Amino acid sequence: MDYQYIIEGNELSPTGSYEKVAKDLRGQWDGENLKVENSWCDIDAHSFNFLDDMYVSISTLHFKKPVLFRSNRTQEDQPYFALKIGFTGTFHGDEDSHDFNNLGVFFYNSNQQFEVEYPLNTKCQWVSIIFSLSLYEKFMAANISEITKLIYDKNPWFKYFSLDIEIENLVRAIVFNLDKKRRIPIYFFTKPLEIIGLIREKMEKEANGFKRNIHEDDLKIMMQLKEQYLSDFTKQPNLSELSFKYGMSISKLNRVFKSIFDKPILQFYNQQKIEEAYRQINRTNKSITEISMDLNFTNVGYMSKMFKQYYGFAPSVLKEKKI
């Protein structure tokens, strides 16, 4: 694809990238906030640096022409790790939104080539936490485990995590902290450290589930599939159409997708819907029946059955706890 613009650079030293974007797209960069507004793109990105070992950014992006993000580093750069957390839809209280294109947590090391093709005509929001190996060693207790081996593994690796309620609450705290009237600056440091700690706990449970040596083209294509074709919870993806679009048999398409996201396409899609049902029960005043209809479940009984299978309790239990 021909891109209108490509954003790239070393993620642990992003200042140069912000300056270049501001210059190329006639925006403004003041050392903390990047603002670009023109006929085909809106960018509002905030970046905070701590100890030269961690960069935290909060970005709201809307593109009308194709734009690609590409991580870029040299072998001489120090190792780093990237947490990209996507959030959309009901996360900001928009109960009528059905677009959840980048929802989830993407974790990879600096040897993994990572590209994101941003969706057209869709607002997407990201919190990025980029931290060095030295920061991890300073703030995360060292012990000999599978995680230690993984952190020091020089092979490219990647892992997707769903956006659970604990991480979501911390992300909300980071985003709300952008309001300068009620800002607590240290939150931009402590909340990301808490997220790193939660991811470390997940890593302990799923150390063998990390994907090593994923081909960058496979990762890019499957990210595109997830973001552009699994984002509308009111319409189940058509595997035959996806098979034709990507030039793969359905079985190969499922196999490649599963190699990155742990589940075949429809199973992953249904899990996303159940997790969104949890969010809407927890965050909105909708009835369980309304949520079932909005997310296009066959009926409320079917949604309740799937919900209980996934969480171990019925959606009505969560609703009662909220009340």
Protein model, in words:
A hairpin with a 3-residue loop joins strand 2 and strand 3. The protein has helices at 15-24, 133-139, 146-151, 165-176, 187-205, 216-229, 239-246, 250-261, 265-283, 288-294, 300-311, 315-322, and strands spanning 5-9, 28-29, 33-37, 41-50, 54-63, 67-71, 80-87, 104-109, 115-117, 123-132, 157-161, 211-212. The strands form 2 sheets. It has a 9-stranded antiparallel beta sheet, sandwiched between helices. A 3-stranded mixed beta sheet has the order 1-6-9. The radius of gyration is 20 Å and the shape is globular. With 323 residues, the protein is of the alpha+beta class. Helix 9 (265-283) runs parallel beside helix 12. It is 41% helix and 22% strand. It has 2 domains: 5-212, no CATH class; 233-322, Homeodomain-like (Arc Repressor Mutant, subunit A). Keywords: Transcription, Transcription regulation.
